[in-house]
Design a protein that fits this description.
The complex is a heterodimer of chains A (217) and B (330). With 217 residues, chain A is an alpha+beta fold. Chain A contains three helices and twelve strands, in the order H-E-E-E-H-E-E-E-E-E-E-E-E-E-H. Helices cover 23% and strands 39% of the residues of chain A. In chain A, a hairpin with a 7-residue loop joins strand 7 and strand 8. Chain B has two domains: 194 residues, Thrombin, subunit H, CATH 2.40.10.120; 96 residues, Pdz3 Domain (Roll). Chain B is 15% helix and 35% strand. A six-stranded antiparallel barrel of chain B has the order 1-2-3-6-5-4. In chain B, strand 9 and strand 10 form a beta hairpin. The chains are: A alpha+beta (217), B alpha+beta (330).
């Protein structure tokens, strides 16, 4: 009797972990369609995420540097030119506009609802390896003082492994929504991401300023 | 899509719940100069932490999960297992729940810490190995340890390793002092804590011998009347030690201690526990092929200056510490 019960439980648990693993890979292949490579400087590249279907791509400021244009490689290897609409060194974000093509935008999540311990995963191109992913949790929801007028901004710290090439790539929650932009590594191996709330603010400001030009570049 | 990844979202939520539950008993321990560390409330007024983070024994403050700051006194420390026990000035802490049963390799675990006032921090991993016995920082034997791949961020020392329900599996230390982190299983840690609360320390026995494991010939095994393939050849006896004031001689082969066989050094060290300290204990030896018994009054293993060793500011000048580079602390 107990034996049957034990076997049943074991099968159930193995089914659960198999389904978790399956869900994870499904989620990754969905979000990968919105992941791009951003090449702006003479060497090195970063990641970026397709923010909306009108061709906005969000990445890190340090990925594009002081350049006004960049080359964006989409997940299906199409290469498109992009114009740097705006960049903000204070929060290390840059917004790019790519020429009008078929794009799959990522879903944007609410970073203010995050809790320490929530499962997260990263997508990017660490050390140039395309579309690699790492898993972790939210280690710490902390704040950082910027060098500009914003003062304190929230930041997300995670134990998911990041490396050069992850910059500008998305930090995703268990629902596959973008909740942050991976920006740097501190304390040796702690990843720091700019939360989606800060990114949404930034994009909104740029859209306001650029007016109708956004989406019709 | 939202329905398809229900499982992942449920796991994510339960991990966050675990951090919240375990975080209530995870405290900040302020007892060193630069960077605060973490601790675990094992009772309403008891905090278990890592010994190496308690540098300033006089001015210890503890910040609880709710933000209240209390002063604390050091009840005792055990540098061998790198654990220290503090008593809070007020019984306001929430005692941690202890995981039932032993940790298992492959089990999901999270390291928690609270080194800043910005709330509890977490790092995810699995139990990668259960090891032991291991030698601790000062040569003492740890009966068991856990190893995980959770990243111990700065200030995580002394904090708990919790399971997916937030129940404590062990205490994170930087045991070994060799750069990697160890987790002391909670059962072992609580045993140490009980001894710290009662005696202010954990006694470990001291013989004062240098030994080498040697094979025992069949004739010796016959003389012993048991199948024991190895023993400990005495290669040296420290001056003024318990062994020196006994009848032990260099060349003797130690084959038993306190009526139990000692085929290797680890077995001898495990038997040299607090219970034999100060007592005349029978050491079984082979001398000239004959089995003899020598009584040795076991001493206590001292730890020299455990404070100064880990804190750079106690040294007047920085000293070159060999080819391993400057001492790092976690």
């Amino acid at each position: 009797m107990a034996g049957t019960l034990g076997l049943g439980a074991a099968t159930l648990i193995s089914q659960i972990s198999q389904s978790l693993s399956g869900q994870f890979s499904e989620l990754l292949s969905e979000v990968r369609q919105s992941l791009v490579v951003v090449q702006a400087k003479s060497f090195g590249a970063g990641a970026g995420i397709i923010w909306d279907e009108n061709g906005l791509v969000l990445t890190n400021k340090h990925v594009v540097g002081r350049k006004h244009s960049a080359r964006v490689v989409l997940s299906d290897d199409r290469q498109v030119d992009a114009r740097v609409l705006a960049s903000d060194p204070e929060i290390d974000l840059a917004l790019l506009q790519v020429a009008d093509v078929d794009l799959t935008a990522a879903r944007i999540g609410d970073s203010t609802k995050l809790r320490t311990g929530n499962l997260v995963f990263t997508l990017g191109h660490p050390w140039g390896r395309r579309n690699a992913s790492t898993l972790g949790v939210i280690s710490h929801l902390s704040t950082a003082r910027t060098r500009g007028k914003r003062g304190l901004i929230p930041i997300i710290r995670t134990d998911a492994q990041l490396a050069p090439g992850n910059s500008g790539g998305p930090l995703l929650n268990a629902a596959g929504e973008v909740i942050g932009i991976n920006t740097m590594v501190v304390n040796g191996n702690q990843g720091v991401a700019v939360p989606s709330s800060v990114a949404l603010d930034f994009v909104e400001q740029v859209e306001k300023r650029e007016g109708a030009s956004v989406g019709f570049a | 899509m939202a329905k398809a990844n229900e499982g992942l979202m449920a796991l994510s939520g339960s991990l966050a719940n675990a951090v919240e539950a375990g975080g209530e008993s995870t405290v900040t321990v302020n007892a060193r100069r630069r960077f605060a560390a973490s601790g675990v409330a094992t009772g309403k007024d008891l905090i278990l932490t890592a010994s190496h983070v308690v540098e300033d024994e006089e001015n210890i403050t503890v910040i609880l999960g709710d933000g209240s700051e209390l002063s604390a006194e050091l009840l005792g420390r055990d540098p061998h297992s790198d654990l220290a026990l503090l008593r809070l000035s007020e019984a306001k802490a929430k005692a941690a729940e202890v995981a039932k049963g032993k940790a298992q390799v492959g089990q999901i675990a999270m390291a928690l810490g609270r080194p800043t006032s910005e709330g509890v921090q977490a790092s995810l991993g699995i139990v990668s190995a259960i090891g032991g016995p291991t030698y601790g920082r000062h040569g003492g034997l740890l009966e068991a340890h856990l190893r995980t791949d959770a990243v111990p961020f700065p200030g995580f020392s002394g904090g708990p390793m919790v399971d997916v329900e937030g129940k404590v599996l062990g205490i994170n230390t930087s045991g070994g002092g060799r750069g990697h982190s160890l987790t002391i299983p909670i059962a072992t840690a609580l045993k140490v804590a009980a001894s710290l609360e009662e005696h202010g320390g954990v006694k470990r026995g001291f013989l004062g011998i240098r030994s080498q494991m040697v094979e025992l010939p069949e004739s010796s095994q016959k003389a012993l009347g048991r199948e024991q393939i190895s023993g400990l050849l005495l290669a040296g006896i420290e001056k003024g030690s318990p062994a020196a004031s006994s009848d032990l001689m260099v060349g003797d082969i130690v084959v038993g201690f306190n009526k139990q066989a000692t085929a290797n050094y680890d077995e001898l060290l495990a038997l040299l526990n607090g219970e034999v300290v100060g007592k005349a204990t029978a050491v079984e030896i082979l001398r000239g092929g004959n089995v003899e018994s020598v009584d040795v009054t076991i001493g206590a293993r001292e730890v020299q200056e455990s404070r100064g060793r880990h804190s750079g500011h106690h040294r007047g000048r920085r000293r070159w510490r060999g080819h391993w580079g400057w001492g790092q602390r976690r």
